[in-house]
């Protein structure tokens, strides 16, 4: 008896539409992969969609996912974290010598120190934003300059290279191979991170508070949420994840240099916004970041595979970003409309029931 | 409607006045070569490019949006103008077409943001990439030079000095005001007059405060927003004209990173990223403050990495000063008064 209404609700057009409208990122993924596959097949007779290539794309995307999540968390409360790239540089540069092969310090010490330093910079950001009332954009821009400056001051023009091999496995390690598809350590790390952050955002009280603060700070304050504390904690998590991403990047590069990740803050914002987050805060699902990161890397990889000149790559990237964001906003509006209609039909049903 | 003159209050002063004041005094005391006529004229010339950019940025910020593409537009229009000069197009036409390109690109930005309802941050970020890419393609990633001849003598003329006052023999004792500074001054005056004497200010503030309410109140919000973006594009194109005249050549990467400096100058001047308020005078002072720091540090021979740290710190200091002076205004005025007038005079406004 119970099966009928459930079946009915699955076939319900509204639910179907809502599902379609909230999956804009997958439509874009499908489009991007489709275009590059067809183009590669026709022009070069190579297979873009072969498992080895997909594995390369997903592996590269995992690095972007970590910075994307770091940015997305900052965006959720309506703030922004421009200092991500600089935090990555300054933290790894400061403890670079400890990560070298020649140093005999156990690895967990520099790693803990790096993550702690990242969290401290995040705390500074949070204090600037909430207590000194500096807009997040400017506050994190200032810390971006300060961190990058310190990184240059500390290392100058030199580079620390040849890092500990055990440490490098966190971004170079291969875990398992299925056919041509290699599952690598960064993929698993990114996946675990997304799971944890998703759990925190959707299942914990703190996560719900973040969404509340992002939707309406004044209302959140009025209902007794310590908004300042939530925003500071949020910035701490964001910069902590940035420092973590720094570790991953450094392990991949096998070198610490002060000029690393100079455009990462932009990449992170792009990934997060492609993934459906909004600058005003309070909206977004962490799984969107996965889609955003994969789209970014797939486009980059695809443009390289069809040997597009590098000066045209930014143009194509710009056009695709505009298209994706347009799809996001357009479909989101449609989804809201469907949701409204859904409520109306339900109301109508209830009132009809009352009449009978 | 006639506006009543507001009583003088500290918080009515443009925000960046204090930070400019502090920076200027500190620089003059610490760096002996800073307060010389030669350096000051150089400082004004350098900051005029940023001034034009941050003027456009302030207008956009007041409507509650952001325009990250100004740097890209600067590169693109510069390359367009330089390439035309290279092809021996008369300078006046090259300039006109360059400025038109800037306006058109601004209109595209505005159309994307208003008609497709896209968020301004990511849209202008994407168009920044597009503009930069056009600049790279047209210039083939090389610096564009042109040969001076009769058709582009205008560029040469504009590069000369307008006024030259010599206080002494050496270069640092010569106060020069070039035509570039004059152009900047004229443009700034025109924009300020338009802003303060027409309905532009109230429209822009209304849109920034709440776009929906502004629309319901009968303001053609889309038209105004597109216009503001076009103005921002035009100002960016003018800034690129200044770069082009000053350096007599053009690198396709000139504009990279300038958009952030423009935002910083505007925000130091009291414009918020949320929109609905702001001041253009503040923006001028903000841009001057930024360049004073740069000029003083480079005169003192300090490494660029330290300069970055100092600029970050000055930014925080400036924002903190703005906030504190607003908050403790009464008390500060009281203290100042008791110092100047003696204890007996209370605060009688």
Task: State the main characteristics.
heterodimer; A: 356 residues; mainly alpha; two-stranded antiparallel sheet; two-stranded antiparallel ribbon; 16 helices; 4 strands; globular; B: 349 residues; ABC transporter involved in vitamin B12 uptake, BtuC
Task: Describe the fold and architecture.
The complex is a heterodimer of chains A (356) and B (349). Chain A has 356 residues and is mainly alpha-helical. Chain A is built from 16 helices and 4 strands. Chain A has helices spanning 3-11, 13-21, 24-43, 51-76, 84-94, 96-99, 108-130, 136-155, 165-172, 185-203, 205-215, 217-222, 227-253, 264-274, 286-305, 310-355, and strands spanning 160-161, 174-178, 181-184, 255-256. In chain A, helix 4 crosses helix 14 and helix 5 (84-94) packs across helix 13 (227-253). The longest helix of chain A has 46 residues, at 310-355. The mean pLDDT of chain A is 86. Chain B is built from 14 helices and 2 strands. The longest helix of chain B has 27 residues, at 221-247. Helices cover 68% and strands 3% of the residues of chain B. Chain B has helices at 16-30, 37-62, 70-86, 91-115, 120-139, 153-158, 179-197, 200-209, 211-216, 221-247, 258-268, 280-299, 304-327, 329-341, and strands at residues 161-166, 174-178. Chain B has a single domain (36-303), classed as ABC transporter involved in vitamin B12 uptake, BtuC, CATH 1.10.3470. In chain B, helix 4 packs antiparallel against helix 5 (120-139), helix 11 (258-268) packs across helix 12 (280-299) and helix 12 runs antiparallel to helix 13. The relative contact order of chain B is 0.20. By secondary structure, chain B is mainly α. Chain A binds chain B through residues 128, 132-135, 137-139, 141-146, 148-153, 258, 266, 269-270, 273, 278-279, 311-315, 317-319, 321-322, 325-326, 329, 333, and chain B through 112, 116-119, 121-123, 125-130, 132-134, 136-137, 141, 260, 263-264, 267, 272-274, 303-313, 315-316, 319-320, 323.
